[in-house]
Write a structure and sequence with these properties.
The chain has 315 residues and is of the alpha/beta class. 31% of the residues lie in helices and 17% in strands. It has an eleven-stranded mixed beta sheet, sandwiched between helices. It binds threonylcarbamoyladenylate and magnesium ion. Residues 143-144, 152 line the site of magnesium ion.
């Protein structure tokens, strides 16, 4: 990784043109999506993709999501199917990623797929992400814009804290609305939930008219990214806590006395949007973190998935 000066660009026509130009030149730009900030590089340019892994310090067996502007653009890179069509119609643009078999002549760097025969594709809904993809007219590989294993960024300030001096630019357009990464559905074989996220499982099953196979953790071939300790703050994290112990700070949910409340009203959407900012803020104190129980339905499934990884034993 070669240190560089990081530019902070606003999401106006001038900033967007600069960002697209940097991507075209094979450089890295962090940009907002409705889920979290992504660390973007041109997915067709192997050196740009290698630079993403280097900037994040990410293990190279972990494949990336290719962001595209439309269904039509996605179809240039993957073998489309009826199931893909149904899910894309219902949830794109939006926080859903589909894993599909690569198409002949796709032109995507094999570093994006980490050598797999499938590609994860997503059409983000954020207007700034849309404008950037339109300006580039190409697929943008983008993991969350944080050092590998750390908490995902939902503001440009989070990106700066983790990656300043390691990437060419950050396109700043305020906080992300959803706050949790996309739901990932594998459609290369039996439809499978590979990662819970911003679209609820039930909504996907309703649209598909069938149940999704649930991914078993440890199945590294189909979802190499599902490392157990992930989204980890520096401090320790204790789940399902009713009260603080010792020096702990309490991350609360609902009507509880606490140091940071994800949602006083017990609203899971609000809690999802606040989750990573809360972990970033509490982590700055260096004190251990205790977390209130979060109901395991709706977006609570994805929130609990991230919290479990934040609390998992570290290497
Ligand atoms: O909301 C999001 O999805 C954000 C924003 C920036 O779009 N991106 C994101 O990317 O969360 P990342 O790299 O942090 O997570 C990508 C996940 C990883 O768990 C990876 O293993 C999985 O997608 N993945 C990517 N390609 C895959 C493939 N071909 N087969 C199975 N899993 C794949
Ligand atoms: Mg990530």
């Amino acid at each position: 990784m070669i240190p560089c000066h990081t530019q902070y660009l606003s999401a106006d026509p001038n900033g967007l043109a600069k960002a697209a130009d940097l991507l075209r030149r094979g450089l890295l730009v962090a940009f907002p999506t409705e889920t979290v900030y992504g660390l973007g590089g041109d997915a067709r340019n192997g050196e740009a993709v290698a630079a993403i892994y280097a900037a994040k310090g990410r293990p190279s067996f972990n494949p990336l999501i290719a962001h595209v502007g439309s269904v039509k653009a996605a179809q240039r890179y993957v073998q489309w199917s009826d199931q893909a069509e149904v899910l894309a119609n219902a949830f794109w643009p939006g926080p859903l990623t589909l894993v599909l078999p690569l198409r002949d002549g796709h032109g995507v760097s094999s570093l994006v797929t980490a050598g797999l025969e499938t590609l994860a594709v997503r059409v983000p809904a954020h207007p700034t992400a849309q404008a950037l993809l339109e300006a580039l007219d190409g697929p943008v590989a983008a993991p969350s814009a944080n050092p590998s294993g750390r908490i995902s960024p939902t503001t440009a300030a989070h990106v700066r804290a983790g990656l300043d001096g390691r990437i060419a630019a950050v396109l700043d357009d305020g906080p992300c609305g959803v706050g949790l990464e996309s739901t990932i559905v594998g459609l290369a074989g039996t439809p499978t939930l590979l990662r819970p996220g911003g679209v609820e499982l039930q909504a996907i099953e309703d649209v598909l008219g069938s149940r999704l196979h649930l991914h078993q953790s440890g199945d590294l071939l189909t979802a190499p990214g599902q490392l157990q300790s992930h989204y980890a703050p520096e401090s320790s994290v204790r789940l399902n806590a009713q009260t603080r112990q010792g020096d702990e700070l309490l991350l609360g949910f609902g009507a509880v006395g606490c140091d940071y409340n994800l949602s006083v009203d017990g609203n899971l959407n609000e809690a999802a949007a606040n989750l990573f900012a809360a972990l970033h803020d509490l982590d700055k104190t260096g004190r251990p973190i205790a977390v209130s129980p979060i109901p395991n339905d709706g977006l609570g499934v994805a929130i609990n998935d991230r919290l479990k990884r934040a609390a998992a034993p570290r290497d």
